[in-house]
Amino acid sequence: MAVILYQKGNRIKVGGIPCDFQVCNEHSYLHLLDQGWFYTPEECYAEEKQENDDNAASGEILEETETPETEETTEGPVDPDEAIRAAAKYAGISHWHNKSIERLVNELKELEDAE
């Protein structure tokens, strides 16, 4: 089984939230949580949202922040299988659309280990 982690970025949009993602081995990903990766895209921007909410409550004027646009857009809930397929497509794995999820995860890990 694989774990998908997210961080601020602009590789894809998940539920309208721009982020980068990484498919990780379920046994060796905890160190990435300390390096700024999160379990959901919403968590990537939770700290900024909290600051904005705090500023709004204190009456400060907030500036609009621009979010980077990406070519790929995903709306709605995050489907882990679709995120793995998107990672495989982005990595240039051939036949990403009809290979099994387990095979795609293995090929992504092989590419990661090769780097």
Report on this model:
There is one protein chain. By secondary structure, the protein is α+β, with helices and mostly antiparallel strands. It has one domain (2-58, 66-114). It is 41% helix and 19% strand. It is built from five helices and two strands. It has helices at 30-34, 41-44, 46-57, 80-91, 101-114; strands at 2-14, 17-25. Strands 1-2 form a two-stranded antiparallel ribbon. A hairpin with a 2-residue loop joins strand 1 and strand 2 (17-25). The model is unreliable at 70-74 (pLDDT under 50).
**Rg estimate, integer Å:** 16 Å
The structural domain count equals 1
Q: Secondary-structure element sequence? A: EEHHHHH
Say what oligomer this is: single chain
The helix/strand class is alpha+beta
Counted beta strands: 2
What is the average of the pLDDT values? 77
Uncertain residue ranges: 70-74
State the helicity in percent bands: 40-55%
Q: Which of globular, elongated, flat, extended, rod-shaped describes the shape? A: elongated
Strand content: 15-25%
Number of helices: 5
Short description:
Helices cover 41% and strands 19% of the residues. With 115 residues, it is of the alpha+beta class.
SSE layout:
Elements: E1 2-14, E2 17-25, H1 30-34, H2 41-44, H3 46-57, H4 80-91, H5 101-114
Antiparallel strand pairs: 1-2
Helix pairs in contact: 4-5
Relevant terms:
alpha+beta, 115 residues, 5 helices, two-stranded antiparallel ribbon
